[in-house]
């Protein structure tokens, strides 16, 4: 067991691309935690999708042995937290498991929205914070100016920030020393007290089953111990205990202040709740650690197989993914037009896309994703209150007293020159401006926005109107009443449930027009003309007509063309199978999402 | 018992894979070479004719077609050698049609007499356009005047003359086409092939289009209008369409092409040529080696075929649908069902009838003029899974 004063537990907080993963790699490498030849760039981001998108989805962790300049051996535990707003709750839990943070800021970019969001989470967790200015190797780096900006905007002392290049290795020894000298050891912890271990994260491992990442607060956890999850009251026997270097390495026990993993024949990740307290079954703690909160999906959509014969494959895929991701919910859904599928709940849109991508790629199932929706609160005339997860389930409007929708507080940092466009975007999305301040040449605007206006393509639009220079973060702010209606889309006079959305009454015409115009482009011409309409109740508010296909014929076809042409026509026929039929109309899979994207 | 192919008849296709220059829109198996050993090619093509005809001895041959490439680059003696071979095992129909595709250049026109003497009785001239400017854009080596002259010589030499035009060209308006087509109809004999320009994969036009440099091609609506106009003008001139792109005075249809579209049997000889032959009650599809050099070597060591495979009943039904619906007469439903009995097209045909895209009579189904314009979509609906 390592004495408390030789342990430093920390996380790295940064805006995306400021170098968090590169720095983590560098720290691991410089302390020989991994043999040089095993080093692959961005060791901690392991999932393909994470690598591709350069984001961290699950918290990863590594234990580093370090001999400091004072000649003493230390154990440094790094928890690499998810970097995206969708996973804000996971971030805050991981932060509670450590005592300090390295605040990494790209010295050529400066403070961004996620820098702020994450550093505030760290401050809420009472972290000691060491500012680290990265990428000083770049000619555009301005460490002095950025240090000042950190002091101005965040309000922490940045005079002795570490100046580093995670890429070239400059300054890495200083960072290691700063971790030891400036970050505190775990505050307290009694190895003989009743066990209190925080469940920081858990995931499914193909060989080991469910692996649980824990931080010991009090007491000692050993192999063979009988343990209990305080939230769920589930009981297990610990069959393996160890640490990450970053590969798993078994240890005898974990004591106060230490971070490691256990396995305990836990069947599914669902049985573990991030933030829960683990204690011993006998003589356990009586009080759980504070701050537990079950994770809550906020965005819902339907996932249906394009080929209805693949429903069972989809069920299997979703069940498997759910084993490894307790934060996404699912239940079976049937739709008149789409057949059997699942209504799934996600932490946010990125989370939705990650799950959808994994189903498509890892399980080879083409999906139709229906319009994402948030949870509305319906207050009915009879005094009852319901949650609405799917616009298709909207009750008869005459029975409704009023509707409430979730709102968020969005923080956007943007160079001055794009401020006008950003304000217009927020205004168009029914935003209410809460604050507007300047940090150097960047403006910081805070808006109260309806989540449903953001959930879909707000971030894409923001990136495009600011040429990628804006950064964005948000937090949930509760519910508020507004004039909301269900808008249906009719294709060839038949309503297509999967395209129903909830919209604000004042924006319905505009949204309706945009959607029918989009659909007119997305649906291929058929052999007959197709009316496309948007309607509220029985009232049509927008209409377009997709004219009939006029020409699709091969000019020359002689003896030698029979075989070649057959291949082409078979392809054409197979192409139709990638679409779903609604009445007589084939709608391509991508139409369901693309139709909702707004160009302004 | 009669075999299915007899409903379409039997013909021979001979492929000549050489051209003077490669046209930028053309995806035919055509090659530009410095020197052609005509004797060697004549012998090889004749050997293939003998090989195939010995498998189908005694068949009644209705048509022979020399296609390309540019078959008018063949020497008349080469043509004669091949025709000679085609008489060894097959019986020629009394009214056999023997067509040769010719480019309307002066050099080739000078050979027309020789071709006629060798036995050619029909030519199909690749005039492509009556406008010099457009001929240049199509990469053609002849002028409109030369084409006219070649056509006149052909008229005086052969019993039947047809010519090809390519329309829906760059910057062509509906009016431009109306005038050009009227001129073409005024000069035409009894047959015309009118093809809308198709930008084919693997051609120079394809690359140009991908680079955004092939401008001014008509959109779907203008192309459809041009097609409709073509049907009207040709119909009024007594040369209605009998197939998607082919027009003839009634009775003057190309017998050879009707063998393809009525899904008869045909032998294919020459590089890249395809054949459909029923042997022992089973229909086979074969295709020859594509590259002239590879084909020649292969023939000289036995056979020019690269692939020869059995066609399943489903494949045959698909091919009959694909080919047969191109002709205005449509297809024989009893024949289709005999070919493949578990085909259930009725509900699909009903739907297409309702849309005015198909017709159905006692014993045939077919595609209307409106349906012909979207024939690929119609066929895709009808093809068996
Ligand atoms: N020039 C330079 N590039 C760096 C440095 N650190 C990271 N990068 C690059 O910045 C990009 C983002 O780094 P990454 O570690 O993935 O950022 P993360 O999103 O915060 O994890 C990558 O292309 C890195 O190679 C640095 O010190 N100098
Ligand atoms: C085998 S080709 C050409 C025969 C001859 N070598 C010639 O060029 O005149 C037969 C006909 O197909 C037509 N054709 C070839 N490529 C075409 C294309 N890309 N689009 C439309 N028609 C085409 C031309 O009208 C051509 O005359
Ligand atoms: S269009 Fe005719 S001449 Fe031109 S390359 Fe093709 S086959 Fe040869
Ligand atoms: Mg990263």
Automatic annotation (TrEMBL), chain A:
SUPFAM superfamilies, per database record: EF-G C-terminal domain-like, P-loop containing nucleoside triphosphate hydrolases
Keyword DNA repair assigned to the entry: answer is no
User: What Pfam families does the database record attribute to this sequence?
Assistant: EFG_C, GTP_EFTU, GTP_EFTU_D2, LepA_C
Return the GO cellular component terms, semicolon-separated.
plasma membrane
Keyword Coiled coil among record annotations: no
Which PROSITE patterns does the annotation name? G_TR_1, G_TR_2
Q: Which Gene3D superfamilies match?
A: 3.30.70.240, Elongation factor 4, C-terminal domain (3.30.70.2570), Elongation Factor G (Translational Gtpase), domain 3 (3.30.70.870), P-loop containing nucleotide triphosphate hydrolases (3.40.50.300), Translation factors (2.40.30.10)
Its Enzyme Commission number(s) read 3.6.5.n1
- Write out the residues that bind GTP: 17-22, 134-137
Q: Which SMART domains match?
A: EFG_C
Report which reactions are catalysed by this protein.
GTP + H2O = GDP + phosphate + H(+)
| Gene Ontology biological-process entries | positive regulation of translation
Check the record and name the InterPro entries matching this protein: EF-4, EFG_III/V, EFG_V-like, EFTu-like_2, G_TR_CS, LepA_C_sf, LepA_CTD, LepA_IV
Q: Which keywords does UniProt give here?
A: Cell membrane, Elongation factor, GTP-binding, Hydrolase, Membrane, Nucleotide-binding, Protein biosynthesis
UniProt topology in membrane = Peripheral membrane protein
Q: Which GO terms describe its molecular function?
A: GTP binding; GTPase activity; guanosine tetraphosphate binding; ribosome binding; translation elongation factor activity
Annotated ranges, domain Tr-type G: 5-187
Annotated compartments: Cell membrane
> What HAMAP family does the database record attribute to this sequence?
LepA
This chain's function reads:
Required for accurate and efficient protein synthesis under certain stress conditions. May act as a fidelity factor of the translation reaction, by catalyzing a one-codon backward translocation of tRNAs on improperly translocated ribosomes. Back-translocation proceeds from a post-translocation (POST) complex to a pre-translocation (PRE) complex, thus giving elongation factor G a second chance to translocate the tRNAs correctly. Binds to ribosomes in a GTP-dependent manner.
Which protein family is it in? Belongs to the GTP-binding elongation factor family. LepA subfamily.
Official protein name in the record: Elongation factor 4
Q: State the organism of origin.
A: Pelagimonas varians
UniProtKB/TrEMBL annotation, chain B:
One GO MF term:
metal ion binding
Q: What is the native source organism of this protein?
A: Pelagimonas varians
Q: Which family does it belong to?
A: Belongs to the anaerobic coproporphyrinogen-III oxidase family. HemW subfamily.
Biological process terms in GO annotation: porphyrin-containing compound biosynthetic process
Q: What is the protein name given in its UniProt record?
A: Heme chaperone HemW
What UniProt keywords are attached to this protein's entry?
4Fe-4S, Chaperone, Cytoplasm, Heme, Iron, Iron-sulfur, Metal-binding, Oxidoreductase, S-adenosyl-L-methionine
Cell location: Cytoplasm
InterPro entries, from UniProt? Aldolase_TIM (IPR013785), Coproporphyrinogen-III_oxidase (IPR034505), Elp3/MiaA/NifB-like_rSAM (IPR006638), HemN_C (IPR010723), HemW-like (IPR004559), rSAM (IPR007197), rSAM_sf (IPR058240)
Cofactor dependence: [4Fe-4S] cluster
């Amino acid at each position: 067991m390592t004495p408390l004063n030789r342990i430093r537990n920390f996380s790295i907080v940064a805006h995306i691309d400021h170098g968090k993963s590169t720095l983590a790699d560098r720290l691991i490498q410089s302390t020989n935690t991994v043999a040089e030849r095993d080093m692959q760039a961005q060791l901690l981001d392991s999932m393909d999708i994470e690598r591709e998108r350069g984001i961290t989805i699950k918290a990863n962790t590594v234990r580093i042995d370090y001999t400091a300049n004072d000649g003493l051996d230390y154990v440094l535990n790094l928890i690499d937290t998810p970097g995206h707003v969708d996973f804000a709750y996971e971030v805050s839990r991981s932060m509670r498991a450590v005592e300090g943070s390295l605040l990494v800021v790209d010295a050529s970019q400066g403070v961004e929205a996620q820098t702020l969001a994450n550093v505030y989470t760290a401050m809420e967790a009472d972290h000691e914070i060491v500012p680290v200015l990265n990428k000083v190797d770049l000619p555009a780096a301005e460490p002095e100016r950025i240090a000042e900006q950190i002091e101005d905007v965040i309000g922490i002392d940045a005079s002795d920030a570490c100046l580093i290049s995670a890429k070239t290795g400059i300054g890495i020894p200083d960072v290691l020393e700063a971790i030891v000298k400036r970050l505190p050891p775990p505050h307290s912890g009694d190895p003989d007290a009743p066990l209190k271990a925080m469940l920081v994260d858990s995931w499914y491992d193909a060989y080991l089953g469910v692996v649980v990442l824990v931080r010991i607060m009090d007491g000692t956890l050993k192999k063979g111990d009988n343990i209990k999850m305080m939230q769920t009251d589930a009981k297990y026997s610990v069959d393996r205990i160890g640490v990450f270097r970053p590969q798993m390495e078994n240890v005898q026990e974990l004591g106060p202040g230490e971070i490691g993993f256990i396995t305990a024949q836990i069947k599914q990740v669902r049985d573990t709740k991030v933030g829960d307290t683990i204690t011993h079954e006998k003589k356990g703690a009586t009080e759980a650690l504070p701050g537990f909160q079950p994770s809550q999906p906020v965005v819902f959509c339907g996932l249906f197989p394009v080929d209805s014969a693949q429903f069972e494959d989809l069920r299997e895929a979703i069940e498997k993914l759910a084993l490894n991701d307790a934060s996404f919910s699912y239940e079976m859904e049937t739709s008149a037009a789409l057949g059997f599928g699942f209504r799934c709940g996600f932490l946010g849109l990125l989370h939705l896309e990650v799950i959808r991508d994994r189903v498509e790629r890892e399980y080879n199932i083409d999906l139709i994703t229906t319009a994402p929706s948030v949870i509305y609160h319906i207050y009915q005339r009879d005094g009852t209150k319901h949650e609405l997860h799917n616009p298709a389930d909207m009750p008869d409007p005459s029975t409704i007293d009023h509707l409430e929708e979730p709102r968020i507080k969005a923080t956007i940092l943007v160079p001055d020159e794009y401020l006008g466009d950003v304000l217009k975007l927020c205004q168009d999305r029914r935003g209410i401006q809460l604050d507007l301040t300047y940090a150097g040449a960047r403006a910081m605007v805070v808006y109260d926005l309806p989540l449903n206006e953001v959930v879909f393509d707000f971030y894409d639009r923001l990136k495009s109107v600011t040429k990628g220079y804006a950064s964005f973060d948000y937090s949930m702010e509760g519910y508020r009443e507004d004039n909301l209606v269900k808008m249906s889309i009719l294709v060839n006079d038949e309503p297509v449930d999967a395209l129903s959305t909830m919209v604000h009454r004042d924006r319905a015409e505009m949204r309706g027009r945009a959607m029918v115009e989009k659909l007119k482009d997305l649906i291929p011409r058929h052999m007959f003309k197709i009316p496309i309409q948007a309607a509220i109740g029985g009232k049509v508010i927008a209409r377009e007509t997709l004219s009939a296909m006029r020409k699709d014929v091969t000019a020359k076809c002689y003896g030698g063309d029979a075989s070649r042409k057959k291949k082409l026509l078979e392809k054409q026929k197979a192409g139709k199978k990638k679409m779903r039929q609604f009445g007589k109309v084939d709608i391509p899979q991508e139409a369901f999402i693309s139709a909702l994207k707004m160009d302004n | 018992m009669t075999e299915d192919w007899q409903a379409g008849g039997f013909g021979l296709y001979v492929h000549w894979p050489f051209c003077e220059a490669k046209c930028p829109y053309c995806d035919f198996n055509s090659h530009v070479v410095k020197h052609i050993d005509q004797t060697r090619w004549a012998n090889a093509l004749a050997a293939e004719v003998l090989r195939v005809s010995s498998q189908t001895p005694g068949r009644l041959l209705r048509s022979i077609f020399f296609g390309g490439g540019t078959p008018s680059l063949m020497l008349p003696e080469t043509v004669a050698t091949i025709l000679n071979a085609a008489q060894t095992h097959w019986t020629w129909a009394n009214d056999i049609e023997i067509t040769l595709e010719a480019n309307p250049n002066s050099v080739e026109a000078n050979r027309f007499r020789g071709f006629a003497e060798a036995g050619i009785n029909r030519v199909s001239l690749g005039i492509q356009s009556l406008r010099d400017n457009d001929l240049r854009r199509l990469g053609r080596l002849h002028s409109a005047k030369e084409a006219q002259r070649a056509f006149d010589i052909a008229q005086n030499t052969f019993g039947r003359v047809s010519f090809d035009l390519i329309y829906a060209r760059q910057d062509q308006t509906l009016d431009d086409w109306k005038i050009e087509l009227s001129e073409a109809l005024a000069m035409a004999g009894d047959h015309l092939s009118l093809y809308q320009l198709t930008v084919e994969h693997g051609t120079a036009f394809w690359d140009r289009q991908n680079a955004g440099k092939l401008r001014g091609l008509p959109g779907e609506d203008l192309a459809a209008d041009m097609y409709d106009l073509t049907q009207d003008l040709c119909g009024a001139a007594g040369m209605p369409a009998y197939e998607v792109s082919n027009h003839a005075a009634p009775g003057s249809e190309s017998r050879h092409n009707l063998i393809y579209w009525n899904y008869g049997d045909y032998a294919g000889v020459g590089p890249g040529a395809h054949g459909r032959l029923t042997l022992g009650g089973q229909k086979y599809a074969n295709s020859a080696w594509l590259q002239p050099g590879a084909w020649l070597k292969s023939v000289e060591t036995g056979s020019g075929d690269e692939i020869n495979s059995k066609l399943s009943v489903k494949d045959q039904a698909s091919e009959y649908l694909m080919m047969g619906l191109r002709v205005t007469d449509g297809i024989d439903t009893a024949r289709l069902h005999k070919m493949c009995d578990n085909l259930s097209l009725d509900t699909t045909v009903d739907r297409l009838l309702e849309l005015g895209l198909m017709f159905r009579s006692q014993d045939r189904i077919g595609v209307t003029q409106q349906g012909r314009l979207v024939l690929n979509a119609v066929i895709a609906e009808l093809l068996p899974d």
